């Protein structure tokens, strides 16, 4: 016995579509967990030291995660917009502390601007009513 199942909705009711993800800058892509992967135009070198000696690692991409309310609150004590942006980039990319800040400060200017656009995606609540996206 074959059965057919059909689902219908009243004419005045529509099934909402999943919201579209915001557009990202070129070289960036959404990951399954909601983070954003950004390919760097110029690789960064992260240097660390330990009792075993110095170690350097080339980084060709960064992954940014959505910010938390705590990240935003913690950034509010910083006096300039540039310092707040750098703090939020460090928090979002997991590059924390002075070493993380130095790493992000060494990015190519175009990579830094691209990263600021990713932070904007995570902090934007969408277009204002009556405006176009």
Automatic annotation (TrEMBL):
Protein name: Uncharacterized protein
Protein source organism: Gluconobacter thailandicus NBRC 3257
Compositional bias annotation for Polar residues: 1-12
Region: Disordered, residue numbers: 1-27
Top-rank taxon: Bacteria
């Amino acid at each position: 016995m074959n059965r057919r199942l059909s689902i219908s909705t009243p004419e005045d009711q529509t099934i909402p579509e999943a919201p579209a993800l915001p557009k990202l800058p070129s070289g960036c892509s959404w990951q399954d967990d909601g983070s954003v992967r950004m390919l760097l135009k110029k690789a960064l070198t992260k240097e660390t030291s330990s009792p075993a000696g110095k170690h350097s690692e080339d980084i060709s991409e960064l992954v940014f995660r959505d910010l938390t309310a705590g990240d935003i609150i913690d950034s509010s004590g910083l006096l300039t917009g540039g310092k707040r942006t750098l703090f939020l980039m460090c928090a979002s990319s997991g590059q924390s502390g002075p070493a993380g800040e130095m790493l992000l400060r060494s990015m190519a200017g175009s990579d830094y601007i691209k990263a600021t656009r990713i932070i904007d995606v995570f902090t934007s609540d969408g277009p204002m009513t009556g405006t176009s996206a």
